[in-house]
Amino acid sequence: MDRLRLCEDLFFQRQVHVQVDLPRARIWALAICSLLAMALGPRMSAPPNVDIRPHLDALFRAESGRILATLIRLLGGFDLAEDAMHDAFNAGLQRWPVEGLPANPRAWLISTARFKAIDAIRRRTRFDASQDYIADALYGDEPASGAVDDELPDDRLKLIFTCCHPALAPDVCAALTLREVCGLTTEEIARAFLTSAPTIAQRIVRAKAKIRDERIPYQVPSGAELPERIAAVLAVVYLLFNEGYAASSGPSLTRSELSAEAIRLGRLLLDLLPEPEVIGLAALMLLHESRRPARVSADGELVLLEQQDRSTWNHAFIREGIALVERALSTRRFGPYTLQAAIAAVHAEARTPEATDWRQICALYAALLAMQPSPVVELNRAVAVAMHEGPAAGLVLIEALFTRGELRDYHLAHSARADLFRRLGRRDEARAAYEQARALAKSDPEIRYLEKRLHELG
Amino acid sequence: MKYICLGYIDSNAFASIPETEQQAMMDSCIVYDDQLRANGHFKGGEALQPPNTAMTLRYANGRVVATDGPFAETKEQLGGIMILEARDLNHAVELISKHPGAKFGPWEIRPAADLSEMIRQSEARRRPAGKPQS
Lengths: 458, 134
Description:
The complex is a heterodimer.
Chain A lengths: L2 H14 L5 H19 L12 H23 L2 H22 L5 H21 L6 H9 L12 H11 L6 H11 L5 H7 L4 H17 L12 H21 L7 H19 L3 H14 L2 H4 L19 H16 L5 H14 L8 H14 L3 H15 L1 H13 L7 H13 L3 H14 L3 H14 L1
Helix pairs in contact in A: 2-4, 3-4, 3-5, 3-7, 4-5, 5-6, 8-10, 8-11, 9-10, 11-12, 11-13, 12-13, 13-15, 13-16, 15-16, 16-17, 17-18, 18-19, 19-20, 20-21, 21-22
Chain B lengths: L1 E9 H5 L3 H20 L3 E6 L7 E6 L2 E6 L7 E10 L3 H9 L9 E5 L4 H11 L8
Antiparallel strand pairs in B: 1-5, 1-6, 2-5, 3-4
């Protein structure tokens, strides 16, 4: 975090902070004076109650993945590195209010963590002489001042590949990546996945034990192994994105932050490993995320693509996404992520719903279906065909799915079918299908949407 | 975040090891607690005297009844409590899993509850009716 940002945060904090913990606040008010004097200059006096912890938490979120990755290289082990990093952040919590912010907080934290690790090993050696040489080796390895911050790009990639190893289940990888690479707390991850903190904690404990016991290597895979391993990493990133994208409203910001974290990981991977599907997934996430501002109305209702105010779409994301799609397509080695991104790009290019190039979308869905057969892709293709060739042609495809016994419990299939009946003027069948969809739908906005449609049918 | 860590101990198992090992064990616990303190994790805590020094109060038949003990059937008894400052639940698990005391009984780790909202509601309930909020 740079100093200007900290200034803004402290100022914002002063305006909104309602502190009830008075004795602690008083101690902090004293401690924080020197920090504020340095950060804000003579223009304003110290606020009466500020806690440095939120700022360190923000720094943790932004930097812990890089710091941990570097420390694993310097210290050689996952657990030792993580302990040392936590100890360094705690040292910052105690010392920065008194000593002031270091010029380069990340370098300070890495350097402090190294000394904390050496210290911890020395303490332990009193009971385990075998560890003595490790402390000496680390101490002797002291890099020149400043050099400790020299981050190798591979460090973070290694950490991502370790956290997304195929020996670990995808949901375990997702939790581990969020904690170790993105710096989320166990409790935040639990809220984001709508589960309990002990459940997530146990997943992470077991995953780390597995990494240790099965000696899962801390390295970037090479050669023939690489494509499969990249696929595993991308699956985890996409899982994270979808978890955050499905719930775009609600009191907790954490779930939309999940999408932001997924995009952050996607960009990171793009820098480190520009393979076609890495590019395709980054494009797909950016193009979907571009619509987030339009997806929820002022009163919290879901807004479908057709009704969205396209002027509120994030056009910077769209430009970036489209450029990435074209880059991925030009490699001719693309896969399903790139094709899905291409479909999203066609939607993004249409200034109005009527201007959508449905012919192109139908062709892209056909290509996607050939590459990755799935009933949900078939359903999406049926909707595109209905837009291109008319509702009757789309209905034939959905009825074929239902005849095969597919998607009968999927509310969106019933809802899509109902829309086609409605457009064909078959009101009774439309009503029955909307009612089936409503019976299967689980989220409140979706239920309200379906009831509105039923009400309009009269 | 604050986590309350309840350390249980099997006193019989501890008593059955040689005295030198007991001392080494105590030393390692004290060293580890110091390490937790030095890094700002140890926010308070006490070791407990044995269960036979305890009193238990229970509300029964409209009054409080005091008995001595507890004399639970379990081998493991609460031996100490610690208030631990950790970044998250996994961090607390990591810190406590290295505690040498874990060799002689389980640790239970629970996040401290934030009662500020409950207290606010309680104060609102107890406020005399008709008086405006201050």
